[in-house]
Amino acid sequence: MGLPRTRSLRDVVLILLGATTMHLATVLFQEPGSIIVSTQVSSHFMGGINDSAISHLNVEDSPLEKEEAQQPLGTVESESDIITAVDIAHDFPETTLVSHAPGWTVYRNLYMFYGTLYIVSSQPMSAFPDIMFVTSTGLPAENTPENIALRMPTARDMDVITPSQARLLWGGDPDKAERNRIWPIEGNTVLINEPSQFLDHYYHFCAEFLLGAWSFWQSAFNTAASSTSWTSSRAPPIDRMIFAHADANGWRDRPGFNAYFLRAAFPSLAVEVQEDWQDRIAATSSRGGRPRAWIFDTVMLTDRSAAFRGEACGSRTQRIAAEAVEHGRKLGTLAADWWEPIRRSVLRFSGVDEKTLAIGYHVDAQRGDLVVAAATATHDPIVVTYISRQGSRRHLIDDDHATLVEALTSMCDAHGWELNVVQAERLSKEEQLALAARTTIMIGVHGNGLTHLIMMPVTPISTVIEIFYPTGFAHDYEWTTHALGMRHFAIWNDTYHSYPETVWPNYPEGFQGTQIPVHAPAVTQLIQDRIAGRLQ
Ligand SMILES: *[C@@H]1O[C@H](CO)[C@@H](O)[C@H](O)[C@H]1NC(C)=O
Ligand SMILES: *[C@@H]1O[C@H](CO)[C@@H](O)[C@H](O)[C@H]1NC(C)=O
């Protein structure tokens, strides 16, 4: 998949210095697609270039580079730094780290040359996060030792070089008034390194990737003071997303929610896909030409495999967004209602009115790692939505479904609550979103239909009730519900399980089947307790 991997950086340097053979020259300047990676010269330097090899060739830092001010790592830059224009014609701006959690990393001045991302810095590699927590080879994931090893990034995926090494590669000759051969990718980019394996699914794209990306982007640029509410966020707009390993269909789901959400949330955002990324790779090295690099002004690099190497995702939640959200919570730079701007944009786009958007609005309190709405927030009217899966593969015992509908109907009639029993696939996108936008209690068997919970208003009684085959569990909707500040209950027939109790993923026989039981009175009792405030 994709282009053949680039040669080691040293090979390139050797070519530039003329210390090479015809064979190497042919390797470098062949058109992409026909390149054969030379094994004769492949090297395994930890940091790519062998420094002693370089100094041996008499290349030294220029005084100018030595004097370049160093940005402290891991800090948010001031506004003035962000808007300062850098003269990339003559300088190699150094890469700085803005923020990092496993799978989510924001850099300024990150370089790309022949498919490899380069950190250009006079600091050692150890000053930056280990690349295994930043990126991967971009291959689809399988749970085998071979595949896990194949996804481990190497210096071909990401490397650290010094400004003088960058000059060797892409520098113009100052004596001839030549400009550096680096071209800017201006503004703010999200570079998505994961393949289409999960991206083409509504839950994984909207409730995992987008949710993680938005939370990380917000907290990377916010301070505690600017994260009291999403309205005071100082995170800059996102200009483009580049799906490096997914083609135009690779990030689209079949029902079409992914494209709908992305366009609604970010109407001006430009999307590039794998083919565009390959164009950019090819453009860094052409037959007979001199190598050039792209430089990202500000880029958030996201990688699913790298997120899974983190503790929150890999050991606890299996949710890539967990690394992003927990990082922001720890720093105190994630507003309680951080998701609200995306939710509002999507719902406004779909035609939901302002009165509905204002339901329960007044989110300002925090409890543990759960965000809860203020006790004053109201949720009027009460809307109970049961998303039925009886038309799909995994579903309830037919009698239990019928009994549940009867019990919900009489409960809602008795209290004057609105009840919707829907099969999502029979509604238009707009109808589905309009319903989620006003739902107080969402009920359903574990499945993609529950992804709409990301469009529910967050109030103290907002609740997701997920029905599993008894003893079965998965974190998908539970984690997502809590990340947004709502309560989640897993139903096993006549019992429920909820935070702070820990339930581990489990897929018993029957999990995917058509005989999932549910004891209706357990569900209606739970709903009444939640709405009455007896279950906080
Ligand atoms: C770098 O190159 C020098 C000279 O060729 C060699 O002696 C040294 O072992 C190399 N270092 C690494 C880390 O490969
Ligand atoms: C579900 O719970 C009810 C009420 O306790 C019980 O009568 C029924 O047998 C249970 N069903 C299953 C499949 O366990």
What is the gyration radius calculated from CA atoms?
26 Å
The largest sheet, given as strand count, sense and whether it forms a barrel, is:
8 strands, mixed
| Mean pLDDT metric | 84
Strand fraction band? Answer: 15-25%
Bound ligands, named by name, code or SMILES: 2-acetamido-2-deoxy-beta-D-glucopyranose
Number of domains: 2
Low-confidence stretches: 1-7, 14-83, 363-376
Counting DSSP H or I runs of 4 or more residues, the number of helices is 20
How helical, in percent, are the residues? 25-40%
- In whole angstroms, the N-to-C terminal distance is 50 Å
So what's the overall shape?
A: elongated
Organism: Fibroporia radiculosa
Signal peptide: 1-25
Membrane topology: Single-pass membrane protein
Main location: membrane
Structure described in brief:
Its main location: membrane. This protein is of the alpha/beta class.
